[in-house]
Structure formats: C-alpha cells, structure tokens
Design brief:
The structure is a homodimer of 149-residue chains. Chain A has six helices and three strands; from the N terminus they run H-H-H-E-H-H-E-E-H. With 149 residues, chain A is mainly alpha-helical. The first copy, chain A, has a three-stranded antiparallel β-sheet. The first copy, chain A, binds a DNA duplex (20 and 20 nucleotides) through helix 4 and helix 5.
Amino acid sequence: MAIPMMQDGTFPIPGFVYETACRQGDVYAADCPTRQLLDRVGDKWSVLILLLLGEESMRFNAMRRRIAGVSQKMLSQTLRSLERDGLVDRVVTPTMPVEVTYSITSMGSELIDALTMMMRWAEQRMPAVAQAQARFDARCDEPGAVRRP
Amino acid sequence: MAIPMMQDGTFPIPGFVYETACRQGDVYAADCPTRQLLDRVGDKWSVLILLLLGEESMRFNAMRRRIAGVSQKMLSQTLRSLERDGLVDRVVTPTMPVEVTYSITSMGSELIDALTMMMRWAEQRMPAVAQAQARFDARCDEPGAVRRP
DNA sequence: CAGCATCCATGACGATACTG
DNA sequence: CAGTATCGTCATGGATGCTG
C-alpha cells in the first residue's frame, strides 16, 4: 500500500523521500507523480500552450492572439508555472520595447508526443462522443427511465 | 478563421455541421474538439478512473477503495459523465443488494494509450520537474532577481 | 510590448446525511 | 451496496486598470 501524503505535501514517516513514493508504482495513490502531472494538465491552458510552443517558439502577444479566449493574466500565469516546471524556456531580448520569446524545453517536448496523441483522438472521436451524449440524454428523458437501482 | 460556437453547442451559420469545424484543424480555436476533451481530462478524477477501468472492470465501491481520496459524490458524478460520453459502460445486475459493474468501452480504450503515455512521462520526469521547480524558486529568491523587463 | 495587482463571480469539490 | 441531496468552501479564472 502506498504511503499517504500529508496536506502540506510531506510524508508522515521520517526518512521517507519522494523517490520512494515514485517507485511504489500505484498510480491511484494520492502521492503518485501522476497526480501532480494531472494537476498541471488539468488547468485550462497548459496543454494548449505546450502544444503551441511544440510547433514553434513564440512571443507573448503572438500566443495571446493565437490561443482563442485566453486572457493576459492566465497566459502569463500559466507560462510562468510551465517555466517553473522546466517545460518552457523564456528568453528576454532587451530591446526597446522588450521582446520576450517562449519556447519549449527538451523535457517539455517529450510530453508533446503524448499530448498530441490525445488531441488526435479528440479530433477523430469527439463527434462520436457528442452522439453518445445525445443518446444518453434521450434515454434519460424516456418515461420509465430510472438510474438508481 | 474558425467559426465561433454558440453557448448551446450549435453554430450560428445555417447548414454548418460539426464536421466542418473539426476539419478547420485549428486546435487553438475555442470551438475545437480538443477543448471539449481538455474539459473532461481537466477534471480531477476522469483520467484516473479511465486508467483504472482500462486495467480491469470494477464495481463502484471497489473503485472507491482503489482510487485514493475520491469521494463518493465525485466518483458517482464522474462515472456518470464518462458513461454519458460513451467512454464507460455501466451494467446493473439486479441481485439483492444490487451489483453495478463499470467497464471501459472500445472508444474509451482508444484513449487509454495516450493517457498511459502521459502517465509514463510523469513517472519518469516528475522528479526532474521537482528539481526544476526548486531551481526556479531559488533564482527568484536571489537579491537581483527581477522578472519584469 | 509584456506584464503585475486587484476585485469578484462561478463552479468544482468535499463533508455530511439520507435511501432503495 | 450503490447511490442521491444539500450545504459550505475554496480555488480558478475573467474583467479591469496600471506600469516600465
């Protein structure tokens, strides 16, 4: 069984180190690295930003124009945490006005492959998902429909 | 430019069909199928549930015990929306008390491959990410550290 | 151009209690 | 066992205004 992580991110057993938790191999444990990745992937813009930078390096406002619906605040915030994670590089050219270019790191580009697979699945399958949703909703509207046993 | 989708999921142009939007090919458009997938993948439990059912079919409380930290409410809610999406099957055996078994659909299992790649990356790379975070935070604590140009 | 600071609404989520 | 119902919280993220 995996060792439960405290709310502050530490572990209740002295001498317990992160690598130990990693090697437990239980993806469903609260302290598993997958949870941390899911937290990052879970936010609204990280994946889109990574995919974009996977295609080409870009300046801040160019990204802002490219990704429909992203606010200045969220783009800035998400880029910063991706930079902190070592997935994105940030280069400042001190011209006037300044030029800031973002690019993906080698570690980040490793993740791109998996993300691209997900997106390809989405492009192929989302129409089918929409159909499934319609069928499900139709079933729920039927007279004798009950879910609870 | 991509055509904006209305809030009810329809499109403002008569005769416009979903497939047209799909083929626009702009992942960064607000109406792209990728956004819908990201919404699902974005929530806290969907991916873990899919991965678990990708391994084996399971009953409700077995899943609850297996996935550390998931509440009854969220497990129920997430399973229901995955079922609605056509990614998960729900079979009720009318014994006493009832037995409800969840399994992954064929469409769902197609997604598993991509998700598994992501998780493998996480297991390999999250320690490196943690190091990158530590370095980043250390840089920010340096005296002359400024971010804004 | 490339941000930061602040306010605020929404909704995701957890805890708890109850049911067939 | 397998859920539903309700309530409270807290974080996410959008809108706005300002800066070097």
